[in-house]
Amino acid sequence: MTRGKQKIDAQRRNAERNQKSKGSQLEARAEGLKVVCPICKVQLANEKQLIDHYGSKHPKEKPPSASNA
């Protein structure tokens, strides 16, 4: 009988642990995405990703220079 009670207690403790809010990563994601593609408005983390993005999504266009972005 003790084993059944232990199992119920363990399930309750796990449920309480899982309910705790771990925080949203939306704010951290927004801080990390600094560069925006002027054509399709996709958000990118840095200038290198923007250049790679232009190469794959906008091959006929030239990527903006660092002073324009």
TrEMBL record:
Q: What is this protein called?
A: C2H2-type domain-containing protein
Q: Where in the cell is it found?
A: Cytoplasm; Nucleus
Q: Where is the C2H2-type domain?
A: 35-63
* Listed InterPro entries: MBS1/2-like, ZNF706/At2g23090_sf, Znf_C2H2_type
- GO terms for cellular component: cytoplasm; nucleus
> Which residue positions does the secretion signal occupy?
none
Q: Which UniProt keywords apply?
A: Cytoplasm, Metal-binding, Nucleus, Zinc, Zinc-finger
Q: Which spans does this entry mark as compositional bias, Basic and acidic residues?
A: 1-19
